[in-house]
C-alpha cells in the first residue's frame, strides 16, 4: 500500500492572523471549521488547514500521511526512534489522526479513515 501525503497544516497562536497572511500572500480560500481551525483550499494541490495552537504548543508546519493502522504505524515509528506527540485520536466519524516527531525532531501527522 502506498502512503500518500493527504493533508498539511500550518499552526500558530493566532489562527486568524495566519489565515489572513496566507490568503493575502497566495490567494488561498479558506472556510472556518471552528474557532481553532480553518480548512484551506488552495485551488490546486492538496487541501490543508490553518489552526490555532494551544497554550505551550509552538508554531509548526506539518504534513499528514495516510495509513491503514495508526497504532501499528505509531509503534513502528517508536521502534525507529520517533516520539509520539498525540496518540491516535478520533476527529470525525471513522477518521483518526496522530502526531509524532521523527528522530530529527520534525513533526509528522498520520491520518486513517475507516470509511
From TrEMBL:
Membrane-spanning residues: none
Pfam families in UniProt: Glyoxalase_6
Phylogenetic placement of the source organism: Bacteria, Bacillati, Actinomycetota, Actinomycetes, Streptosporangiales
Signal peptide: none
Domain (VOC) ranges: 4-113
Annotated organism of origin: Nonomuraea harbinensis
Protein name, as recorded: VOC family protein
InterPro entries xref list: Anthracycline_SecMetBiosynth, Glyoxalase_6, VOC_core
Amino acid at each position: 500500500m502506498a502512503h500518500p501525503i493527504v493533508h498539511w497544516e500550518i499552526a500558530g497562536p493566532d489562527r486568524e492572523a495566519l489565515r489572513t497572511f496566507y490568503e493575502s500572500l497566495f490567494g488561498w480560500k479558506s472556510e472556518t471549521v471552528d474557532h481553532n481551525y480553518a480548512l484551506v483550499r488552495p485551488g490546486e494541490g492538496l487541501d490543508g488547514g490553518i489552526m490555532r495552537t494551544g497554550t505551550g504548543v509552538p508554531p509548526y508546519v506539518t504534513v499528514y500521511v495516510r495509513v491503514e493502522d495508526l497504532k501499528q504505524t505509531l509503534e513502528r515509528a517508536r521502534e525507529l526512534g520517533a516520539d509520539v506527540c498525540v496518540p491516535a485520536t478520533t476527529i470525525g466519524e471513522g477518521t483518526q489522526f496522530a502526531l509524532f516527531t521523527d528522530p530529527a525532531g520534525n513533526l509528522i501527522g498520520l491520518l486513517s479513515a475507516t470509511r
